[in-house]
UniProtKB/TrEMBL annotation:
Enzyme class name: transferase
GO molecular function: ATP binding; protein serine/threonine kinase activity
Domain of life: Eukaryota
Keywords of this entry: ATP-binding, Kinase, Nucleotide-binding, Serine/threonine-protein kinase, Transferase
EC number(s) recorded for this UniProt protein: 2.7.11.1
The keyword ATP-binding is annotated on this UniProt entry: yes
Protein name: Serine/threonine kinase-like domain-containing protein STKLD1
Gene behind this protein: Stkld1_1
Catalytic activity: L-threonyl-[protein] + ATP = O-phospho-L-threonyl-[protein] + ADP + H(+); L-seryl-[protein] + ATP = O-phospho-L-seryl-[protein] + ADP + H(+)
Keyword Transferase carried by entry: yes
PANTHER family: SERINE/THREONINE PROTEIN KINASE, SERINE_THREONINE KINASE LIKE DOMAIN CONTAINING 1
Length: 313
């Protein structure tokens, strides 16, 4: 009430945010803090030029969302909060250090389907792509933005196909730049999977994207989630085009089939990885030439192994 009575006084908003932050460690105060997110976001929007207030507000919102996650509470932040965060993104789009914090907040916000939908509605995708292009070197920003893109792309009712299509080259550039960084590569693979599911790739994208995904699998074989999402992304490409299937077979850096076998043996106790690999193989055998090659490389043996390992799945 104190903050709402004096929106125009920056010091009041700053003191209010600081005072609310002092309750973060008190678990009994959490239900009340949950109700403060809109007040904090509006304070940030009202005094958007104050970087100090933006940082404190952003940090407090992150603390509240982190605590919600710990307690298994899913917070669906409203369209008003999404609009305030977009306002902050646009006002401080050149501040790399602050954007690193803000993009982490956006990633946590977008974990809720409702909040992701609200971010999409206010039109945040072009801003995310602009940030990625500008700060392609920053692994933290790239990882967070790709995670947000994934959340927005898997949203079922989006009407911004053209905007999503423009995300493909940017996401590919992120993956290419950070192939050896498992966290960023995992996030970028997930985003490419979601974009391919939404039909955002064109004929000219299939072969280079498949090659890039194979590179990500080769560079990060130990990351089960990356392997799983990379294979699901490949499966959705192969479903659309034989070119992608042939790119897997004839990859210049080595047989994609051998890579699939190696990944399965590395993660033989991970049902998610096995399922993703099976889905990829299921899509590949729809093409006669590809199926003959898979037979010659004894893929039936691998399938039998998977069947024995997961007899009840």
């Amino acid at each position: 009430e104190f903050m709402q009575a004096s929106w125009d006084i920056e010091e009041v908003q700053a003191k209010g945010i600081q005072h609310l932050a002092s309750f973060v460690k008190n678990k009994s105060a959490f239900p009340c803090l949950q109700k403060c997110t809109e007040v904090v976001a509006l304070a940030m929007k009202t005094h958007v030029s104050s970087l100090e207030l933006q940082v404190e507000g952003c940090t407090l919102l992150l603390e509240i969302l982190s605590q919600a996650l710990e307690q298994g509470v899913l917070m669906g932040l409203g369209e008003r909060v999404a609009s305030c965060l977009l306002h902050t993104v646009r006002r401080h789009s050149g501040n790399e250090e602050f954007l690193s914090l803000l993009c982490t907040l956006l990633m946590m916000v977008s974990a809720s389907g409702v909040a992701a939908e609200n971010l999409r509605k206010v039109g945040i995708i072009p801003d995310l792509l602009s940030i990625l292009r500008r700060f392609l070197h920053n692994d933290k920003i790239c990882s967070s933005c790709c995670a947000v893109l994934w959340s927005l792309a898997v949203s079922e009712n989006h009407g911004d196909q053209e905007v999503l299509e423009s995300a493909v080259p940017v996401t590919s550039a992120v993956l290419q730049k950070h192939l050896q960084n498992g966290v960023v590569a995992e996030s970028a693979c997930s985003a490419l999977w979601a974009l391919s599911l939404q039909g955002c790739l064109t004929d000219s994208d299939y072969e280079p994207t498949a090659a890039l995904l194979l590179d990500a699998l080769r560079m990060n074989p130990e990351r089960a989630v990356l392997v799983q999402n990379g294979c699901l992304a490949l499966a959705s490409l192969v479903r659309l085009s034989e070119t992608a299937a042939l790119a897997i077979l004839l990859d210049s850096k080595g047989s994609g089939i051998e890579l699939i076998k190696d990944e399965y043996h590395l993660h033989f106790d991970e049902p998610g990885v096995a399922e993703a690999l099976c889905l990829l193989m299921k899509e590949m055998v729809q093409y006669d030439e590809v199926m003959l090659d898979m037979r010659s490389q004894k893929m039936e043996k691998l399938l039998c192994e998977i069947k024995l390992q997961f007899p009840f799945s």
